[in-house]
Amino acid sequence: MDDRETRRIGYSLTIPDTLLQSDAMRGACATRDFQEVFRLVNRRTGSSYAVMAAAVGKMTSSRVSDVIRGVRRIRGQEVIERVADGFGIPGEMLGLPQRPWEGSPEKVHLPQPPTYADPSREAADTAYLLPQSDEQALTAAHSDVLLVSVWIEGRKQIVPISRRSMVTGAIGAALQAGDLARIPAPATEFNPMPASFPKLDPTRIEAAIEHLRDMWHSLVRADNLFGPRHALTAVRQQLFILESLLAYARGAQRSELLRLAAQYAESAAWLHEDSADMSNATKWTSQAMEWATEAGDQSMVTWTLFRRSQQATTKRNAAQVISLAQAAQRNSSTLTRPMRAAAIQQEAHGYALDADEVSCHTRLDDAHDFAASPDTKGDARSGHGDFCTASYIEIQRANCWLTLGRPDLAVPLFETALDELPNSYQRDRGLAQARLALAYAGIREYDSAAAQATSALSIARSSGSLRTMHETVFAVNALGEVHTSQAVSQLFDAIKEERGF
Known about the structure:
mainly alpha, 24 helices, 2 strands
């Protein structure tokens, strides 16, 4: 490794010395012929348009394509500086002052985002003090959360706790012991479902199937708009009806009920995951796979493999993330284009966890070829994966850059993709803003981080998404060392004044 490459450890793209010293590159730099510079980087290094765009920053893949085709030109000084920094071209070759990386920059080491582990296991590095394993308790749990500001080792931190734990004094004892992760989850009460459901004749079963099918699309849309708090109870009610009907339905009606039950079970799995309840998320994914297999619904079986891969991501199990995502892509006859896009971008997350930057961004580029229409209404009427639009894929690219330790490259991608995200995906917006807040903290733009965290927390509260709340609290706590910033102090004060979740 030469001196230039050594100084650029941590940068996503550094063109090799042989290319840098070639007559073609020297001539292109001397004349600031960026069409040729970009073409050489693309052809000689094998870097995709997306990798080049991310390296330069504040640039999209389509703009890189435009530059290479001569449709657009690069003139601004600030953009030229970003090109030099992104590709590792010394300043003097482009008539610029010496670049900062010609010293010794370091890769940013962000804290790892929260994982939603099985709540039956102890998690020594998390502070999830909510009841997470009782399916019927989730609705009550949403309203039982307080966000409390505390000082821990000289840092201001936000801790989500149960109101009942605080009342009983458990939180005080835990704080004194310095063990936030092991506060016992309080017992919660719930209203059980009816003991039985009236038996229906075949004609009424057919009508019930039609009603439940239409209801599912409405629930998916409600989840995207308002989050799990508003959808989980209804999904449980419909599952109770479906299980009652499955007890005696036969023939084609049973097969149709099984398909529908698998859909609802997969939705229940997602709602529990969004409620940071991975135990029930895993349980309902398994149930969805079982019902889909019995019904011969290969499309749903494939989708549950994709969901399993997503769940493995929360545990940071790179090998399982990649393997399950690849398994979801094998049965190509069952895959719609958006389903394929979702599985491909999910595979990219596994490569990011494995620190395989090239494979990660290559697969994200591939996913764009199958992206869903941006005109989606968020009700899944076009099938599984209709959320996987181009803007969603770019948000996932930004998340991958965070995993790879490059918040500087994540920020512009988050900013652009959030502007293009369909309005029907408000909860996804909140989650992306929480992660953008973390990226801003990583590049020391604390006021911007506080603004994004404030917005994300608002969406988390309105939707009841505990996953978004945990991600936001994680980002807020990354700001704990800079509580003297006015914007950060105002954020902590606002949380203190409106502690309820």
